[in-house]
Specification:
This protein is α+β, with helices and mostly antiparallel strands. 12% of the residues lie in helices and 29% in strands. The strands form two sheets. Strands 1-2-3-4 form a four-stranded antiparallel beta sheet, with helices on one face. A two-stranded antiparallel sheet has the order 5-6. Bound molecules: zinc ion.
């Protein structure tokens, strides 16, 4: 996904602007990132350069969960909408 495309993306549910956390990028291309909606708290990952901006019922959480775990996030399975649990607090 081209970086400049980010500005045009919004939450497919409520059209809010998304907050983006980039994990892997290559020149102007974003390969892995996490987008979150400040309005509904849903998250939308970018996996293999593809933004997963689709309605809840079409999401594949088995596939997404694997990537999220690698990024250090946990899927909130109790939530009705796709949300992440707060990052595990560091025990320092
Ligand atoms: Zn939203």
């Amino acid at each position: 996904m081209q970086k400049q495309l980010l500005k045009k993306l919004c939450c497919p549910i409520d059209k809010s602007d998304l907050e983006v956390q980039i994990f892997t990028e290559q020149e102007d291309e974003i390969l892995e990132a996490l987008m979150t909606c400040p309005e509904c708290n849903r998250f939308f990952p970018v996996i293999y350069g593809l933004p997963i901006l689709i309605p809840d019922e079409y999401r594949d959480f088995d596939m997404e969960g694997e990537v999220l775990t690698r990024w250090g996030f946990i899927l909130d399975e109790k939530s009705e909408t796709p949300q992440l649990l707060p990052e595990a607090s560091t025990t320092e």
